[in-house]
Amino acid sequence: MWDPEGSLEILKDVRRHLFHLAQHLQSFIPFLSLFRSLRGYRWRWVWRDFIAGVTVACFHIPQSMGTGMAANVGPLYGVHLTFFPGLIYAIFASSRHNSIGAFAPSAALAGVGVARTRKMFADPFMANLTYSELVSEAGLADVLHQHQGIVVGFTFWAGLFQLAMALFCLQPLSKILPFSVLDPFNCACSLQIILVQIPNMLGIGLDRFYGLNKHINLIIMLFQQAKKAGGLDTLLAMLTASITIGFREFIQPSLFRKVKLIVPVEFILMVAAIGLSYAFDLSGRYGVRIAGNSPGLVRPIGIPSPTMPSFEYLPHSFFEGMLAALVSIAVCLQAAKPSSRKHGYKVDVKQELVALGSANLFSSFFACFPASSNIGRVTVLDSIKSRSQLSTLFACLLTGLLLGFASQTLHYLPLSVIATIITLTLAVSLKLFEDLPAVWAASKLDAFQWVLTFIACVLLDVEWGLLIGLGFSLLRDQFLQQLPHWVTLDSPEASAPPSKVVVVGSSIDHHNAESLVESLLKSDLLEPNRDAPSRLVRHPIIEKVIRKRRDKPVPTIDLSLVSSKAAQSATIAVRTVPADRAYLILDCTLLTHVDAAGVRALNYLMTELVKRNTGLWFTAINGPVSTVLEKTKAGSRAALPLAKFAPSVDEALRLIDQEVRYNLTAVPDLARRNAIEVSTRPENTENKTTEAFWEVTAQPETVRETTGASVTSDTADNEMPSGDL
């Protein structure tokens, strides 16, 4: 029998569970950036995202097939990059305009890594670093299987490394590659892929060269085999290049101005070439090299099933995987930040590491090489006014339909057409050479690093060129960090005693602490003005005292009191504050960090300043520096016991001026006390002499009259002023 109350309780329980589930999902939404970006999404933007996704997919498919050939896994496995990584990246990415997939540096690194690892397993005792091989048609299946196992290891390690960077908050590693290393590396990788594709454009099957001087050997072999070029392959390449360049330069700009639409002419030419190849049997009749004869299509095609990475090649894949992880995140951020600044949203580096690492780790189970973004695809998405990563999902949908239902048609695609498309696409990257004069004008060192990285990538190999550029960058940064960075500000002309203001322009740590202190001590900043002469009269006792006190801190006023008889032939040294005391003010406005080595160096600086009778002030300390310096104001174990602090340079100068004025007004009072002591001595009272007294005080005539009147009144009362002499 139906129980209404029981059913009501069940509905309440279901509602309560759904409410808790919604709360958990809401707390998880910030981690899923796609849902967070869709909070203010409007339905009328879906059409724009759909058009943008389809357009980018049409651009992406020919590019991915070309980079798949460069990575030695074949054209079809390049197409996988347009499907699997994008599915994961679109969900986790904080960038709304990045299009993840194939990019030239990753393909070049994968190709080099495949060659190195395969050479290691094929002939480990080969001494020659330049290795060539010609694979027969019968062995294409085995070659493909081996290449897949090696490439999957690169992608697997790249994904794990990027996730580890996000887990351990190692986001600064994403900026370890400066533009003066990344740009020439990108140019070298693009040039390498172009050189590899030129034989395919001409219908020539060349040996594959790896290692040192491979580009030079490839060019030499190309000229030697030029007579074997296929006429129809070359004609297809020329037609593809002519139509693509003409459309890009003349038709596309006017078309975009009128209808705001970008036509993927490369994809249209690829479809037309497939139709011509199938209709006229270009491979069977005229010997045109097609994709069906390449390693990428000898296996059954379609959406592949997931497979575990081969543990045989994983230990040998970590090096290229780590390099691919660093390069891919650097390129991804470089492509994402311009559009984020334009549209007013922030790209979270940690979230990008999570998204890119998850995408690479997921796609490693589907025979994909490491993926990243591309500035060209980002520009296309931005031009069509894409609003979110839904455009990437639409692109993945189109690619999935192609892989599932139309992948058989890729069998008839002429290699000369796809090689021409990828060559023209990567030729745009060579425009980075136009930035070299501006880099040279801005920094000769950056320009040298740019050229060094490019030459190393061309002559040695792309991975070694990247390591050389990165190593030079790290050594340069280490050298620059050890240089002292400080400037001197003009101190007020009326400042007495002299005060020097120094602005510290870098951190004070183990890199530069020693050089900073040495440069300050060697400069002429700490030479106080000692124009006021001391009154010196030779006497053995006074000279002995001066020698003992020469290396000790000099007090504000040093009056040596002797008897009247000895004073007639003695040296009385009277030092006053303005003539002998100086101050050094360190402006810490730009100071960001001080470590234990920096505190030790500042202690040494204060020790040397005490010997030179110079005071040290710290001003405008902020942030973490205050916790290191301000806590040293007091205490028996203070790290900087003699340092003084002020909120600003003006305040420090005011406090110094007060200190100087106080010491100056104290001089007549001390002279008065000394005069009372000398005048009340028995020998001076009996002889009624005052010459020895004024030798002790060394005061001018005007001060003598004032002091004399005070002495008369004080001696009449037989009272001594209180205070320390």
UniProtKB/TrEMBL annotation:
Organism superkingdom: Eukaryota
Cellular location(s): Membrane
Annotated keywords: Membrane, Transmembrane, Transmembrane helix
GO cellular component, one term: membrane
InterPro entries to which the protein is assigned, alphabetical: SLC26A/SulP_dom, SLC26A/SulP_fam, STAS_dom, STAS_dom_sf
BP terms from Gene Ontology: transmembrane transport
Region (Disordered) residue spans: 698-725
Residue ranges of domain STAS in the record: 501-656
Major localization class: membrane
Transmembrane annotation, as ranges: 74-92, 99-116, 150-170, 261-280, 353-376, 388-405, 412-430, 450-475
Pfam family, any one: Sulfate_transp
Residue spans of biased composition, Polar residues class: 705-715
Topology of this chain in the membrane: Multi-pass membrane protein
Protein name per the record: STAS domain-containing protein
Organism name: Ramazzottius varieornatus (Water bear)
